[in-house]
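Lecture notes, unit on protein representations.

Consider one protein chain, 113 amino acids long.
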Amino acid sequence: MDAVTATRLLDDREREVVHRLSRLREDEDSLRHDRADATADDEHDPEGSTLSGEWAQVDALRRGAEAERAEILAARERVTSGVFGVCERCGSAITDARLEARPFARFCIACAS
């Protein structure tokens, strides 16, 4: 895969991740607001466990999106250095189909599994 195509795929994926992070931050703000209106006693508040569970879920999704964004930035560095699309483990080419599905892939399918 050429550098222009790789950059386009990374740009597209990063836009998706940035949008997802924006929505997750809005969800966190909403939960923070709901939490401020509620009691801090999750054990005795019927809504407390629901808010805590939602908070944990949003937090996990946000951390996952941030990790994906870091992977995208690392993939951009691989494009710049000319090693994008090369498996970090075996040195084989990563297939275009894999890179289209996961443009920040660092390993070929064989090494990833």
